[in-house]
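Dear colleague,

Thank you for sharing your sequence with our group. We've completed the structure prediction you requested, and as agreed, I am returning the results in plain text so they can be pasted directly into your records. Please verify that the sequence below matches your submission; if there's any discrepancy, let me know and we will rerun it promptly.
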Amino acid sequence: MSEADLPKQEQNTPAAESAPPVGTAPARRGNGLALLALLVGAAGVAVAGWGLWQVRSLESRDQQQLGMVEEARGQTQALVQREQLLSARLAELPSAAELDERRRLLVDLQGDQQQLRQRLETILGASRKDWRLAEAEHLLRLASLRLSALQDITSATALVQAADDILREQDDPAAYAARQQLAKSLMELRTTTQPDRTGLFLQLGALRDQAAQLNPLVPAFEDKGGVLLDMAAEGDGRSRWSEWLETLSHYFRIQLNADQNIKPLLAGQSLSQVRLALSLALEQAQWGALHGQTQVYQQSLSQAREVLDGHFNKENPDSRALLARIDELSSQPVEVKVPDLAPTLTALQAYLQRSPEAADGTGPEAADPGEGAEQ
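Please find the predicted structure tokens below.
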């Protein structure tokens, strides 16, 4: 072997050593095919899943479309029903001739209502002025009734003043005569003194309570001759004889002056009867004071005074005070002379009759002619 051949052998030896074995190449090819098969299978699974998802989407869309179709079908049926109902209502509507007839009837009804309202105003009075004047007449009648029945000056004055205010609101020159009479009546009422009947009634009631507790005065023995002074015993200046006479004087009394009337001592049932008679007399005086009966009032107080004079001593301070109070109340007036409102009422009625509404027969006097007769 030559030296030139030696490097070639040396060069060929490593190449032979680095070359792969003969059996390893097919194994690598099998692994690549398996990996490719896995990739293909995975792609097939993905394609199958995507296809299944597409199928599910199509089915859901189909169901939604079916729901929308059903909803549209329901709306169509509702529209058909509304159309049928509208057609039925249109069929029930009246025709043009019937509408004209109903319009004519409505106009006639409105005209009748207006005529009825006018007739009602004619009967009841065309204006508020007529009724205010009728109210003034009623107030004046009521004031006259209060004066004649109760002698109530205060209430009558207020009623007459209210009637005058109504005439003043009318501002009618024709009411001058009526207002003149009203002014005279007001002046007479305001100058008339109203008796305090309630105060007299209460004062008499207080006297009744005092009379129910009235007791007689027990007489006491008084030695004016000086005989018992000589018989005084030692001690405090009073003898046993004087004490005995003082005790006996509560049961017996010797009156030496025969010209004086001796009043018996009241006790028990006699005292109750006298108190009852005095209370009844004062109660009757209360009735007379409250109802303005002067004769009854004076007679009742006179009876009470006679009861006190006949059964109680003047030395009794309670009976003397009660008698003085009765004399003081006897001078109090319980009745008053009330003014006559008849001329004023006549003047007001004359003014009402001269008013244009009354002359035409449309005022309240013509509407109710029996009202004045009843009152």
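Summary note from our side: Residues 47 and 279 are 131 Å apart (CA to CA).

Kind regards,
the structure core
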